[in-house]
What we know:
single chain, alpha/beta, Rossmann fold, 3 domains, elongated
Amino acid sequence: MKIAMVGSGYVGLVSGACFADFGHDVVCIDKDQAKIDRLHAGIMPIYEPGLEALVESNVKAGRLAFTTSLAEGIEGADAIFIAVGTPSRRGDGHADLTFVHAVAKEVGENLANDAVVVTKSTVPVGTGDEVERILRDTGTSHRFSVVANPEFLREGAAIGDFKRPDRIVIGAEDDFGREVMREVYRPLFLNESPILFTSRRTSELIKYAANAFLATKITFINEMADLCEKVGANVQDVSRGIGMDNRIGSKFLHAGPGYGGSCFPKDTLALLKTAEDYDSPTRIVEAVVKVNDSRKRAMGRKVVDALGGIEAARGKKAALLGLTFKPNTDDMRDSPSIAVAQTLIDAGVAVSAYDPEGMEQARPLMPEVTMCDSPYTAIEGADVVVLVTEWDAFRALDLRRVKELANAPVMVDLRNIYKPEDMRAAGFAYTSVGRV
């Protein structure tokens, strides 16, 4: 089959490269000429393990191409995926569908054959209806079907998630859409990947409901971590104890500085706004958003406390290890490190930082933070070392070297990477999350 992927960002590029690896002919389309030029040169616009090699092999095989021309890219395509950004709209939190609607209009104006138009972007309930209306309003004479096919990709593990998915959700309203999508995903039938066909609106809501539920699990265990610190319990043992219950499961029960990234923050807000529009309050999700926002600043205050409090912290230096919202990505969107750094700066603390992949993206977001070329450069002269993101590079720090470089052997571990007893034996004043 021929597939057109409109949008060559995180979702579009990963999906397009994986579809090409399945054997489909794929054209990735993007208006950004510089991005397309870099892709032609083999330079990835994002960091995702394995993506560069996957793109290179499929370009060489002639199954993957890039263009800025939508008309050229969708010509002869059996399925046209819309994978453009849907950021939170400034001011009200609604998903901004400007790019989705613009693509739908341009597709309709340039459609030269029958095709299925697929919303791959995360979009609010009812977006597919609007995309269908826009396509009809263009007056196209070709048959089309609008399908919702949400993505469930974890940054840092996206290729594996695409090729070995927990499920494939397809929201279609007619047989044409369902049959084309079966053929698109036919290579995954060999892996017996479960495919769930639903109505279009149901498919759109599944994505938001899934992310909101996962965000709720994260926020719940973070609140349990706070309680553990008060009562003298261990949140990691609490997580194991409840995660062994098959009805709960162990995933997303790791206490930390709060969730961030490209999905959970904007998707929980968009779900709240949809619920508000339909007069169906989602009180739990509302609480999750508020608790998570406040938690990030609270983690900054935890570091200030480790420095001796607000008065003692002024004029001291903190070294942040890890800036991205999670490891194995360069994504800084809504990363907890931003709030942690700003809280420290507001308290008069100088901040240095190191991240294996995210510093280029972090610089404009943290202009007052000194970016360093290694974790040990960041630690030099620091009064506290703060582990913010659990990159593998930070799991086996040379603690003797850390003590030699830092002004004081003080560490705040916001990801519970190390064991408290080991750190204390090494001579550190050590603070973690939900453990005493």
